[in-house]
Amino acid sequence: MKIPVIPHWPLIGNAWAISQDILGFQQRNFRRYGNTFMFYLPFGQRVVLTCDKDVFKHILQQQHKNYRKDYDSNKLKLALGNGLLTNEGESWFRQRRLAQPAFYKKRLEGFFDTMNQLTLAHLQELSADSEATVQIDREMMQLTSKIVIETLLGKDIGDEMSHLQQHITFIQEHLVNLIRRPFYRFSSKWNGKEQQFQQTMRDFDAILYAIIRQRKAAAPQNDLLSMLMDARDADTGEGMSDRQLRDELLTIYVAGHETSGYALSWAIYNLCTHPASYQKAVAEVQAVMSDGQLTVENYKSLVYLKQVIDETLRLYPTAYLLSRESKAAETACGLEIPEKTLFLLSTYFLHRHPDYWQEPDAFIPERFDGNTNVLFNSEAYYPFGGGPRMCIGFHFATMEITIVLAQLLYHFDISLTANGKPVVAEPLITLKPKDGIHVRLTKKLT
Ligand code: HEM
Predict the structure, then answer these.
(1) Which residues line ligand 1 (CB under 6 A)?
(2) Which pTM does this prediction carry?
(3) Which CATH number goes with the domain that contains 136?
(4) What digits encode the pLDDT tens for the residues 176-208?
């Protein structure tokens, strides 16, 4: 069957409707046209949007060789170069093989103490008084940013940390604008933003290359940079060039802090709005941390917390849209797929699809309790993507989120500040809580 094309305007296509409300646009059209439909971006660019589990499996897993990363990843390339997220083909495969061992679960456990210490220090800063009102998504973003920088570059980067963070904030804003606003590319050339971007990239690179040079001259440390520097290609014995190291460092930072920061924020929001789950999670944390300590051993017993995280990523997949471009035309999943067509895979609507999930909008962590459970559908669950390009930081993120949630629940009573309004998701590069999540933290007497 031909993919249904939805009504669109000449020249601008459906750009206006999408820019107004990208989730509403998807929901309306999935209801009207089914699981897969085609729409248009300005200048005739056609795009297929899908929430069909078979199309996800086909594109990400079974026939992944016929799909490349899409044109947006070229804009990301301006900053990330040939890092894992934006790389393709042979070069991507080589890099993935080199980087993979650093992300093995056992190896990542070497970062447990760093994550735990940074979390405790951040919580201490938050709670100078016995009660504090905070915007928790902002705090979680700061914390995950510190965690990823220190696990990447080690303890000793001191002042450079804040320089790097400032530069990255601007770089990310610029890239988001390039991707989201069709005319920004032109306006940025005359309003100075493009020049500012180029200068920021030069400053940023100067810091990163200096770190790489220093580290090459020093003894290896316990951080991801050392692991990436030590990695050798099994066939050729070659390691990564400085340029490749720089691209991977920046990529891991960009891919690894916002996704985790917002996932944590949504988990806290879900717990605060579901008292029975909150109580169950607190009881588990108190039992596991009965002596006040969280360790690389006992954190594995936080099984309910893990279910809370899985269910949070079902309802709020921070990577809410994955994108690919078809290389050649094919017929698959009963659809005629044209060549060179951009596909957007809507994880958000796949995860809430009423044909795949019972009570799709309800927060029920027990779906993930491992019992053969009609509430869970593994074929319709892709929070970390799937196939060969599945998230390399999956174990990193799971360990980090578990540690932060456990320490928060152990040390504080958490409640939403009482404005009573549900928090709405705002889909930017990742799925962000619109207007933030404001909570009251009350220190527990432990
Ligand atoms: C809750 C947190 C996270 C979520 C939801 C998430 C989600 C994803 C998804 C969906 C992809 C696949 C994108 C695609 O197929 O187009 C991906 C790729 C990637 N992620 Fe994550 N991620 C998270 C945390 C992290 C962390 C902590 C790191 C690193 C420390 C990381 C590093 C990467 C990298 C490097 C890639 C590209 C892999 C490749 O193409 O080979 N992610 N992530």
Answers:
(1) 84-85, 96, 148, 251-252, 255-256, 259-260, 263, 318-319, 322, 383-385, 389, 391-393, 396-397
(2) 0.95
(3) 1.10.630.10
(4) 787 777 677 788 888 888 999 999 989 889 988
